[in-house]
Amino acid sequence: MTADPHFPNILMIRKLESIFTLSDEEKQALRDLPIQVISLKDDQDIVRIGDRPSQCCLVLEGFTCVYKLTSEGKRQIMALHVPGDIPDLQSLHLKVMDNSIASISPCTVGFIQHEDLRRVCEHYPRLTAAFWRETLVDASIFREWLLNIGRREAYTRMAHLLCEFLMRLEAVGLVEDGFFDLPITQAELADVIGTSSVHVNRVLQALRADGLIQTKRTQVTIPDWEKLTVAGEFDPLYLHLEGGDAA
Amino acid sequence: MTADPHFPNILMIRKLESIFTLSDEEKQALRDLPIQVISLKDDQDIVRIGDRPSQCCLVLEGFTCVYKLTSEGKRQIMALHVPGDIPDLQSLHLKVMDNSIASISPCTVGFIQHEDLRRVCEHYPRLTAAFWRETLVDASIFREWLLNIGRREAYTRMAHLLCEFLMRLEAVGLVEDGFFDLPITQAELADVIGTSSVHVNRVLQALRADGLIQTKRTQVTIPDWEKLTVAGEFDPLYLHLEGGDAA
DNA sequence: CGACTCTTTGAGGCTCATCAAATGTAGTGG
DNA sequence: CCACTACATTTGATGAGCCTCAAAGAGTCG
């Protein structure tokens, strides 16, 4: 990671700019946002269900996950977040956390105080819209995951998840030639797609056997994007990767 | 339904007021919003995936659902909306619909132009926050449904869904003594909880046999709320039914 | 009363969970 | 460099939950 103390701010600005055109003033306001950076090992809770946080968390490096547990202790991961995402942006308007957020790989995150974020939003309504939109895209991904988990079988689900990951990582420059790092265990993948780790293992073997993915440690290569999207019934519409400025 | 031409506006105001305290000016602005009311039979699409709507839809009477189809034509319902909800509020900031919305019972809905909604939000930032919060609660429900579908079995899932429905309908005054109307077929319930209609039928029988619900036509009675919440592992936290004003 | 839709029931099979154990792969300290 | 530990992946076997197909009852409505 760059030593630039403003790297978190720049990451956030780049992310918003991929959708909205920001004025110099807006960019400056974002650049001036105080962001407290900390590093985490994997599997560390960042916020917990029931908390009443006074800050939001911006992912800088690595991946985080949003999860909940059933009363029998089964875990469901509802979302994965990559650098540039703000997994608990909702806490700006919902006092109590209704889910927990944890690092799923070693990662770096930045904390932004709610009051600072609110102040910026008050002065720059277009930034309010931009942040609001971020939470709407998150919601859109939840919907797609509901379809995935509710109505597709494990093989398709996994292919779909890998497609989504590739696209989202590509958007932040973390993919080269269909090749990216996925530092997530099979047990965690199981918690994402709602199956068991044993079954994840078998599904991954099937995907490899069908030539849809190649894996080496935590590295994943997609040799044939077209084929994987077909196997995963993947249509990137729901990611809303372009066109944010209101009509 | 009342003949009052401002009924839709009043419904919206009441909904927001259950969370935020609104000033007279804010209320007046909402009362002045033009809303075009129309009636629908059941199973009618209101907006479709891929559409670029220029208006939002406020549910006035009956229920609507948010759904998507897999390429094999299987349907997953991602959300149910009750009077007072705005199922496609997201379209204010996401140009293209990533899901379809349909009536699931005969219903009345009101359409509000995006431009009108935007104008109100510009003048009253607290209303922006209130609408933003609505979309955040929707997202919170998506997360809970992901846990439900991904990690709980059908019996628990159904109990959970009925708990949620009771609470949400109670919030808009549509429940009396644990008794409410649920004009939804078992096939539709199956699309909600991600199973088959045959299995829904068996699960409902089991719930009846266990004394957790009583049904008569589309009428549902919950004789023992406490027992049903245990069976459904239900914790209403995720509905965020109170406390919206920022700290 | 017939046409339609929805609910209910049965039977067989498939997907996937669970349990348990073996193998593989870092990371640590001697 | 090797033994040792801690995890993660892989494999096998068994069974539970649920799907699908098919057909029979029950409401509901013109």
From TrEMBL, chains A, B:
<dbReference type="InterPro" id="IPR018490">
    <property type="entry name" value="cNMP-bd_dom_sf"/>
</dbReference>
<protein>
    <submittedName>
        <fullName>Crp/Fnr family transcriptional regulator</fullName>
    </submittedName>
</protein>
<feature type="domain" description="HTH crp-type">
    <location>
        <begin position="156"/>
        <end position="226"/>
    </location>
</feature>
<keyword id="KW-0804">Transcription</keyword>
<keyword id="KW-0238">DNA-binding</keyword>
<dbReference type="InterPro" id="IPR014710">
    <property type="entry name" value="RmlC-like_jellyroll"/>
</dbReference>
<keyword id="KW-0805">Transcription regulation</keyword>
<dbReference type="InterPro" id="IPR000595">
    <property type="entry name" value="cNMP-bd_dom"/>
</dbReference>
<dbReference type="Pfam" id="PF00027">
    <property type="entry name" value="cNMP_binding"/>
</dbReference>
<dbReference type="InterPro" id="IPR012318">
    <property type="entry name" value="HTH_CRP"/>
</dbReference>
<dbReference type="Pfam" id="PF13545">
    <property type="entry name" value="HTH_Crp_2"/>
</dbReference>
<dbReference type="InterPro" id="IPR036390">
    <property type="entry name" value="WH_DNA-bd_sf"/>
</dbReference>
<dbReference type="InterPro" id="IPR036388">
    <property type="entry name" value="WH-like_DNA-bd_sf"/>
</dbReference>
